[in-house]
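Moderator note: this is an archived Q&A kept for reference. The question asked for a predicted structure of one protein chain; the sequence and the answer are reproduced below.
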Amino acid sequence: MKELGVYIHLPFCNSKCAYCDFASGVYSEEIKERYLLRLKEDIANFDFCGRTAVSVYFGGGTPSSLRNGYIADILGSLSAVLPFSNDVEITAECNPETFTASKAAEYSQAGINRLSFGLQTDNDVLLARIGRRHTASDFFDALSAARVYFTNINADIMLGLPDQTLADVEHTLNTLIKEDIPHISAYALKVEENTRLFKEKYRPDDDLCADMYDLAYDALSSHGLSRYEVSNFARRGMECRHNLLYWKRREYVGFGAAAHSFFDNTRTENPRSLKVYLSSDFKPISRYISPSGAEAAEETLMLALRTSDGLDIAEYNKTFGGDFVRDNTSILTPLTENGFLTLTEEKLRLTDKGFYVMNEIIVRLLGG
């Protein structure tokens, strides 16, 4: 069975958050219906070449803001042309204020079996500051509705928000730990140019963000949520299968505006603009990557070192030739001796210390 992940981008929100630079916005119902038809057309016309879906991920935007039946309609179109594995993981991103008991029932009936809530923080003042429409109370209500049908639940939190303190982060972490959320993603805020926070000249304090990450790592690790990727923590068996496909450099296909694919050794990017995507003649940007070439080798190394599993040395050598350890001894030796990497016959992994300088280590290994 050739495994495949499917990402479906739904760029619709009820408002734009102050930090958001994603391909998303507020659109009319007419645009949403045109978009749905385009998605279904793209799915119907795609040649999956005998693959089987092991994961489907609805991202955005705010998928949970869409009318009842929208996501079920897409899933029906997808399952009509692509086999699903028996244990397929189907995730929907949700904002707390748009997730209701009826939506929970609808999603469960449609086949969704994993939810990802954009909490960000449980401090209502901070939520308002970054333009979120929900409150902490909305999150608890959404969680209660979700748990009637779902056990596989993620909550996103952000580090480095304007006016956020270590105490704020600790309170949010304690809230999620108390609620026994099995998967938590902790992202450091990156202020992009096309956002309100950038225009307000807000920049996170790197040292404070590092302290917040330390706090998150210690709190989550001590309560049974292991870091399996630099920003993701989960109880055993609750890791996100879809995201693991990205980090293991497996195949995935993206549908919708701004969606990316990696299929048949080709990376493809759809246009970000909804107007262009909905036009009849757009062409995605595609680029072939030789499966045994330098670019593939660099991607494999970079993605693997983001995870706790690390780089499989034998597989790397088999795919790209050479002897990775021997060829990089002058770089690996000081990094291992100084406690940034662990190296065995099978695996190369970052240590806890190494995760803090991950980018620099990767640059060195790539010859930068």
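Archived answer notes: The chain has a mean pLDDT of 96.
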